[in-house]
């Protein structure tokens, strides 16, 4: 599974994208796995209310299933326009 | 419908002029342009990050929704990414409709969605350092109208 | 602030481009353009009569009110009179403001006042003859918002 | 006093402007004088709800006084934009 990070999430984690092997079935489970991995992830995912997630480029909820998903992206609230 | 995501500047006057030309059943054209502000003269530049692929999809989806909901005859969205200096144009939308209410509302709807739902993130660089622009509650609240 | 009443065509793209240039504290520019519609292809021309003197005064008063009420950094109003063919631009307004809500509302306010309170009258000429365009209740009602 | 007519009011009366001597103290009185003068005026002023009046280039009411007014204009509801 590809994971992408944008804006300050990318900066805290130190990478723009990575490939992970995971058994996580929901976004929340995936976040728990990442948090346990390294303090950089714990810092990036400290406050989920400050984060948004997209599954295969569609905005999603944190309890959404990861079934069949190939690309997960984490980022702060968007500031376009 | 025309949606473009690009790092290059665009010529707002030329785009607006071309968009408004040649309409015989659309009586109203509205454009919105967003410009990099520098209220106190301390901003060196703004850098806009985006999510290639998702950005285009989100803008196209919003443009299609606006077109259907407000019976727009045409829609144009241009949004830049990368480094922009104060006074540079960040983005523009344009809408054409038979009557003015739909053209105005279509453009406002597009802007409200674009502000909070299109994957762009702005970072401001000043002499004091760099900081990500925080999302505004009022921008999220603006979506409640639709 | 720039208010013009003229019979000559204007170059919307050039006007819009010039209006949006050079802003460093205005983050939002909105333009509206009104175009002669010809839904069923029967319109030969529209003739717009106005009240020289009062027209300029009314447009300037509305522009000044919009500027104060919505904290606009700049306002442009151009309105034509005389004969116009289908597809020709009748008028435009442009507003510049720090934020988008004021720029949009300033332009809408100007349009709502201009529709019902600026002394212009339209007559449509078709193959069947000529008829004055009647004022619409919805245009009068739109003023209730302000 | 100058009186100006626009759009179909002008067409019904057959003139764009004229100078009148009047003792009328309000717009309503002026309209009564004009109506009595000629059927063209009676036709133009048949339905006051379809008319608007400006005194010295400011939109006014029909019961407004004419004191000091130099220019009165009659026209249908405006259709700008």
Automatic annotation (TrEMBL), chains A, D:
GO aspect biological process, one term: Mo-molybdopterin cofactor biosynthetic process
This protein's UniProt keywords: Nucleotide-binding
Top-level taxon of origin: Bacteria
Molecular function terms from GO: nucleotide binding
Record flagged with keyword Protein biosynthesis: no
Keyword Nucleotide-binding: yes
Entry GO CC: molybdopterin adenylyltransferase complex
InterPro entries recorded: Beta-grasp_dom_sf (IPR012675), MOCS2A (IPR044672), Mopterin_synth/thiamin_S_b (IPR016155), ThiS/MoaD-like (IPR003749)
Pfam family, one: ThiS
Gene3D superfamilies: 3.10.20.30
Family: Belongs to the MoaD family.
Name under which the protein is recorded: Molybdopterin synthase sulfur carrier subunit
Species, as recorded: Rhodalgimonas zhirmunskyi
UniProtKB/TrEMBL annotation, chains B, C:
Catalytic activity from the UniProt record: 2 [molybdopterin-synthase sulfur-carrier protein]-C-terminal-Gly-aminoethanethioate + cyclic pyranopterin phosphate + H2O = molybdopterin + 2 [molybdopterin-synthase sulfur-carrier protein]-C-terminal Gly-Gly + 2 H(+)
Pathway in which this enzyme or protein is active: Cofactor biosynthesis; molybdopterin biosynthesis
Gene Ontology molecular function, alphabetical: molybdopterin synthase activity
CDD domains, per database record: MoaE
One Pfam family named in its UniProt record: MoaE
Similarity annotation: Belongs to the MoaE family.
Stated role: Converts molybdopterin precursor Z into molybdopterin. This requires the incorporation of two sulfur atoms into precursor Z to generate a dithiolene group. The sulfur is provided by MoaD.
Name this polypeptide is given: Molybdopterin synthase catalytic subunit
Organism of origin: Rhodalgimonas zhirmunskyi
């Amino acid at each position: 599974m590809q994971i992408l990070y944008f804006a300050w999430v990318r900066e805290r984690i130190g990478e723009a994208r990575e490939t992970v092997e995971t058994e996580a079935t929901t976004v929340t489970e995936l976040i728990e796995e990442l948090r346990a991995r390294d303090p950089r992830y714990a810092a990036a995912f400290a406050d989920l209310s400050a984060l948004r997630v997209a599954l295969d480029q569609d905005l999603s909820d944190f309890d959404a299933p990861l079934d069949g998903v190939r690309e997960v992206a984490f980022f702060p609230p968007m500031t376009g326009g | 419908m025309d949606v473009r995501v690009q790092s290059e500047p665009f010529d707002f006057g030329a785009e607006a002029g071309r968009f408004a030309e040649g309409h015989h059943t659309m009586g109203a054209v509205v454009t919105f342009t967003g410009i990099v502000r520098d209220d106190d003269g301390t901003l060196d530049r703004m850098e806009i990050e985006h999510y290639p692929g998702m950005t285009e999809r989100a803008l196209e989806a919003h443009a299609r929704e606006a077109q259907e909901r407000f019976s727009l005859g045409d829609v144009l969205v241009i949004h830049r990414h990368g480094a922009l200096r104060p006074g540079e144009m960040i983005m523009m939308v344009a809408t054409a409709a038979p009557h003015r209410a739909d053209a105005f509302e279509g453009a406002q709807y597009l802007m409200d969605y674009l502000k909070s739902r299109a994957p762009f993130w702005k970072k401001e660089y000043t002499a004091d350092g760099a900081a990500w622009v925080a999302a505004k509650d009022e921008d999220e609240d603006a979506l409640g109208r639709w």
